[in-house]
Design brief:
Helix content is about 85%, strand content about 0%. With about 80 residues, the protein is mostly helical. Helix 1 runs antiparallel to helix 2 (about 20-35), helix 1 (about 5-15) runs antiparallel to helix 4 (about 55-80) and helix 3 packs antiparallel against helix 4. It is globular and about 35 Å long. The mean pLDDT is about 90.
Length: about 80
């Protein structure tokens, strides 16, 4: 599953106000992104995960926008590299 697809799942969790699932999924995605060599993406996903414990909706929404933009940039970078 691509990073963009995983971000879509985070957005679905946020839309459904499922902060528990969002927190867990964002934490897993942070670890995965870090292991794949995307530290900025990993930090953003971790911020989203941490914001979920307090249901900081504004912070979560901003983080999801950031993750969406980063996933897009990563995808474009890979397509341009071929």
């Amino acid at each position: 599953m691509s990073l963009a697809e995983q971000v879509d799942m985070l957005q679905d969790d946020e839309m459904n106000s499922d902060f528990e699932a969002l927190e867990e999924r964002a934490l897993v995605l942070s670890t995965l992104a870090d292991s794949m060599g995307y530290p900025e993406f990993a930090r953003s996903a971790l911020k989203v995960s941490e914001a979920c414990s307090e249901e900081l909706k504004s912070t979560i929404q901003k983080g999801l926008i950031e993750l969406t933009e980063l996933a897009r940039s990563i995808r474009l970078g890979h397509r341009g590299a071929s």
